[in-house]
Design brief:
heterodimer; A: 808 residues; alpha+beta; Aldehyde Oxidoreductase, domain 4; Aldehyde Oxidoreductase, domain 3; 3 domains; seven-stranded mixed beta sheet; six-stranded mixed beta sheet; 33 strands; 29% helix; 25% strand; B: 283 residues; Uridine Diphospho-n-acetylenolpyruvylglucosamine Reductase, domain 2; Uridine Diphospho-n-acetylenolpyruvylglucosamine Reductase, domain 3; Enolase-like, domain 1; four-stranded antiparallel beta sheet; 36% helix; globular
Chain lengths: 808, 283
């Protein structure tokens, strides 16, 4: 018998989609054999580091570098004056604004880059930094965006015209010299009318605080200019290496073919590593000037204080409904604090990202969103921390508004959600704020979640707890946090998604080797997501070669096809689709080869797991391994040798993962300490490629959600000093603080994605934050709480209890 | 996070340590586990031109348990947790040490460093005050003993002279019930409020009590008044309230990222009440 293994065994051997294949990356990560940017050591490599501003707002009167240049090992100190002749003292941001590379006459936030010291080693650079003398003239500090919008203080004189009026910005007219943009979605008048005519209206004002993605590995790069061949190589912590190459080419004038950008192993990104930072520009310049490789690596304080914060949205909402709870309208206004420069990482046409997904999972007939971006004396950024562009803000907003409306209606919040979910038969669903949701089955997911946690039982227990509390039998309250979220991920269709004019397609290139193994290269880059594991699984199922025989390579712009990188849960929806499509091209050619070898017509063979077999005669087949060999080594009339394919995939729509989460929390009213008793997370990410990897993603996302909801923040004092610049004060949860998570799922495949997958890495963060927060709110609902802002750390929970009179 | 250049000394005996201290005065600092000093140097908040590593100096670690308990300055928190004789004789030591930082830090962090640095956030100083410990210091004029309750003057200011080295802590084997209660935001954090309590019960009456609080002033706070409020009572609700009220008269917390003063005072009261209840239940 030629074929001794069963079909099931052949499927198992592939380790294709649906298999909890162990992560191939972990062998090196768990043995300390990863290769991160700081592991790169080149001959003669120099180190650069920044003199940073201690002030949040100041003029720079003078910079004296003479003493620093006397420090042994210090070779150069760059200031804006040195970069100006190269026109590199400012750089474009991803949001259409520009940002100082080195302080040009003034500083706008604490920690801003003032001078760049280049030295033979880190220690000499640090000593050099100490020796640079900067004379500052302190200016009035604006840390409150509402005050900034009324202040006479002009933060950005470069954005004011000669007439003293604010010049138009990248997103249209500006209302004030500290205003950046106004962005609208939906219909203003009809929304006002609908809300005005409604029986019940709930209003709330909430602050989604500033926080930070805080990847374990900070940002950094090594720039190496080879003056002999004119080639510039940059290794860096880049979530979008190709975009970085294009940007470097555009601002430096070096032709793109002479620039090679390499993202090696990356220790987490979560949005922090999407943008371009002064450290990259200065390192490139320093390498060109010195002719030597130059390394720049942030320390933890640099990372927290200066590179890419997240959130900082002040959100004012109104939601209206009938007495029965059917929502009739939603109004949202956001005052967005963008810091000193608008360096948000959003698609060009979306200065507030996809905040207009803020109608959430609900069938809301009319809605209006308006976002005002504002300059303040804080660090620039505004990245999407473990979420698609501003989706966490949007979901937090609607999930809080639902809770507030439930209070206004005196209704159970779970029931209110059920009444308003978009129904299964309404998909594809056109939302009031413009998006077309591709698919969903919210009622099924919700019911499964409610049943799994015995929701009615929990409510009964909570009612008893409240009675006991009032009777003095306990000092702990119980909160039941609910969330049903809908994300919008997989940016995105080139017709409406670009960054700096670069269309947000993605790509995959596959080469099958003669012996039946393969390499596939993608335009994305893993930062811990496990692409080398999961993309090989997609391919295994598509081309019938075992995942273990497929190498996945990303991150080197000299070898990988062009793509826009990994963030916003776009890798599976976009590059994953490209992978499937490229695989299908391979399969199409393989079919012709198989038919030739089997001496039948192309249409007479069919693909079956790992082979093509003659229809109706499954014993006559050629395995993909045999076909691969034939492709290279057997002359086949009319067919070129080789077996390769490339696909650039421009998705027709976003994907819309969703989920139903429940958190049960006990809160010590006297100390403000919350204890998470239970967390149930049901995710629907469409087709599931690797259940184990999905579960890992969910654990990670929930943990970052817990962090943000319960303590993680970048806080400033009135002088613009960062109060949370170290991990002592910036909350990064450990195993100790993290509860046990129960994961569950439903499967609603995306109808337009080649394999039906939707993306999952960010869902748990997006859904987790409001779920933890709603649990805190829910614990106090019976005592009159409507809204208390995150982070819900001990003292803020205590303050809530105190203000409600629970300590009297 | 790069320290300024410094000279690293690693003498093999105490006379070598003292000689370097004599020679360099303020410019020299001794290092035990390094968990406070090294970060300060990396932040360039502490400039230490001469760093003296104590790890090769013999005779500074070890735990002796008898009627008097003596713990060498270089004994780590992990050693304290692992020592069963100590846990039997003074169980509050293990209970408190388990609440310090995380296992990695506890393998390096020492009792001597913890008590000598004068950081009000450290847990051992308050604990030592509760146990009425004495600190042995050695200097150019020989050895002397300083009571823990007299040791702390202000944040990072202690009764130890610059040319003296703290070599051991010792205290009488404690009697009665005990508790070390600590509220913190997360693992590795200093206390929002912490209380060390030892109580001796005789026939349902408290005959002696010792109460000390951590991270609620610029020094640890031994509250004589709070301790006295329990003595002679049955440690009923009224007595606990009186002790808490007395303690609140002795602390002086400041606002930081853990919260404002009102919150800290409230939590200090809750934590102390819980510590007293637990200690009493064990007495």
């Amino acid at each position: 018998m030629k074929d001794e293994v069963t079909r099931e065994e052949r499927i198992d051997n592939l380790k294709g989609m649906g298999c909890s294949r162990k992560r191939v990356e972990d062998a090196r990560f768990t043995q300390g054999k990863g290769n991160y940017v700081d592991d790169i050591k080149l001959d003669g490599m120099l180190f650069g580091d920044f003199v940073r501003s201690p002030y949040a707002h100041a003029n720079i009167k003078n910079i004296d570098t003479s003493a620093a240049l006397e420090v042994p090992g210090v070779l150069a100190v760059l200031t804006a004056k040195d970069l100006e002749p190269l026109a590199l003292h400012w750089m474009p941001t991803l949001a259409g604004d520009k940002q100082m590379v080195l302080a040009d006459g003034k500083v706008l936030f604490q920690g801003q880059e003032v001078a760049y010291v280049v030295a033979t080693d880190r220690y000499a650079a640090a000593d050099g930094i100490e020796a640079v003398e900067v004379e500052y003239e302190e200016l009035e500090v604006l840390v409150d965006p509402f005050k900034a919008m009324e202040s006479d203080v002009v933060l950005r004189p470069d954005t004011v015209g000669e007439d003293g009026k604010p010049a138009d910005g990248a997103h249209g007219p500006r209302k004030h010299h500290n205003h950046i943009f106004t962005w609208e979605a939906g219909d203003k008048e009809p929304t006002e009318q609908a809300i005005g005519a409604s029986e019940v209206v709930a209003e709330e004002f909430m602050y989604y605080h500033r926080t930070h993605p805080c990847p374990l590995e900070t940002c950094g790069c090594v720039a190496s200019m080879d003056k002999v061949n004119g080639k510039l190589t940059i290794w860096g912590t880049f979530q979008a290496p190709h975009a970085i190459r294009t940007v470097v080419s555009l601002i430096s004038g070096i032709e793109e073919h002479n620039i090679r950008v390499i993202s090696p192993d990356i220790g987490g990104g979560f949005g922090n590593k999407v943008g371009a930072y002064p450290g990259y520009v200065c390192s490139v310049v320093a390498s060109i000037v010195t002719g030597k490789p130059v390394k720049w690596i942030e320390d933890r304080m640099d990372n927290l204080m200066t590179t890419a914060f997240a959130r900082d949205y002040w959100m004012k909402g109104r939601i209206s409904a009938t007495k029965e709870g059917k929502i009739t309208g939603l109004h949202c206004h956001v005052t967005a604090d963008h810091g000193g420069f608008d360096a948000c990482a959003d698609p060009t046409k979306f200065p507030a990202g996809f905040m207009n997904i803020c109608t959430g999972s609900y069938d809301i007939p009319t809605a209006y969103l308006e976002v005002d971006g504002v300059y303040t004396n804080k660090a620039p950024g505004g990245v999407s921390y473990r979420c698609s562009f501003r989706v966490t803000e949007a979901v937090y907003f609607i999930e809080r508004m639902i809770e507030v409306l439930a209070i206004e209606l005196n209704m159970d919040a779970a029931k209110l959600r059920e009444i308003n979910f978009i129904r299964k038969e309404q998909f594809p669903y056109k939302a009031a704020l413009g998006w077309e949701y591709d698919s969903g089955d919210y009622h099924t997911a919700w019911k499964k979640a409610m049943d799994a946690v015995d929701y009615d039982g929990l409510r009964a227990e909570q009612a008893q707890r409240i009675e006991d509390f009032k009777a003095g039998k306990t000092r702990k309250l119980m909160g039941i946090g609910l969330t049903h979220f809908t994300e919008i991920v997989g940016a995105g269709p080139v017709k409406n998604c670009d960054i700096l004019g670069l269309g947000m397609f993605d790509s995959c290139e596959i080469r099958i080797h003669p012996t039946g193994s393969a390499i596939a290269r993608l335009g994305t880059i893993s930062q811990g997501q496990g692409h080398a594991t999961t993309f090989a699984q997609i391919l295994a199922s598509e081309i019938g070669l075992p995942a273990d025989s497929i190498t996945i390579e990303e991150g080197d712009t000299d070898t990988a096809p062009y793509g826009l990188g990994t963030y916003g849960s776009r890798s599976t929806p976009v590059a994953g689709a490209a992978t499937a499509m490229a695989g299908r091209k391979i399969r199409a050619k393989a079919q012709m080869i198989a038919a030739y070898l089997l001496e039948v017509h192309d249409d007479d063979v069919e693909f079956d797991v790992d082979r093509f077999a003659v229809k109706g005669a499954p014993e006559r087949f050629k395995t993909m391994k045999e076909i691969a060999f034939a492709a290279y080594n057997q002359a086949i009339p009319g067919i070129e040798p080789g077996l390769e394919a490339v696909s650039y995939y421009d998705p027709p729509n976003m994907t819309y993962p969703f989920g139903a989460y429940v958190c049960v929390m006990d809160i010590d009213v006297d100390t403000g300490v919350p204890e998470i008793r239970r967390f149930y997370a049901l995710d629907d990410c469409g087709t599931r490629i690797n259940p184990m990897v999905i579960e890992g993603q969910i654990h990670g996302g929930l943990t970052e959600a817990l962090a943000v909801a319960l303590g993680q923040e970048i806080a400033y004092d009135d002088m613009g000093n960062v109060k949370t610049g170290t991990l002592m004060d910036f909350f990064l949860p450990t195993a100790w603080e993290v509860p046990n998570y129960e994961t569950d799922h439903t499967v609603t495949p995306s109808p337009h994605h080649p394999i039906g997958a939707k993306g999952v890495g960010e869902s748990p963060h997006v859904g987790g934050v409001p779920c933890f927060s709603n649990a805190v709110h829910d614990a106090f609902r019976a005592f009159g709480l409507r809204q208390t802002n995150m982070p819900h750390d001990h003292w803020r929970i205590w303050r809530t209890a105190n203000e409600l009179g629970l300590h009297d | 996070m790069i320290p300024a250049a410094f000279e690293y000394h690693r003498p093999s005996d105490m006379s070598g340590v003292l000689a370097i201290l004599q020679e360099h005065g303020d410019d020299a600092r001794v290092m035990a586990g390094g968990h406070s000093l090294i970060p300060m140097m990396k932040l360039r908040m502490a400039e230490v031109p001469h760093l003296i590593d104590l790890q090769d100096v013999g005779g500074l670690s070890g735990i002796m348990v008898g009627d008097t308990i003596t713990i060498g300055a270089m004994t780590t928190q992990a050693d304290i947790i692992d020592n069963d004789a100590l846990a039997a004789a003074a169980p509050i030591m293990r209970e408190a040490a388990l609440q310090i930082a995380d296992p990695q830090v506890r393998y390096m962090g020492t009792v001597g460093g913890n008590v000598a640095n004068g950081d009000p956030g450290n847990d051992m100083p308050g604990l030592m005050q509760c146990l009425d410990a004495s600190f042995t210091v050695v200097g150019p004029d020989g050895e002397r003993s300083i009571p823990a309750r007299d040791f702390y003057e202000a944040a990072y200011m202690t009764a130890r002279e610059d040319d003296e080295v703290l070599t051991a802590v010792s205290f009488a084997k404690p009697a009665g019930g005990y508790a070390y209660e600590k509220q913190k935001r997360k693992i590795g954090d200093y206390a929002t409020a912490a209380a060390a309590v030892q109580i001796v019960k005789d026939g349902g009456t408290c005959v002696s009590a010792a109460i000390a609080m951590t991270n609620l002033s610029d020094t640890p706070v031994y509250s004589q008044a709070a301790s006295a409020a329990l003595v002679g009572t049955s440690v009923d609700e009224a007595a606990v309230k009186a002790a808490v009220a007395a303690m609140l008269g002795d602390i002086d917390p400041v606002e930081d990222n853990r919260g404002p003063v009102a919150f800290k005072r409230h939590v200090a009261g809750v934590i102390l009440a819980r510590a007293i209840e637990r200690a009493w239940s064990r007495a």
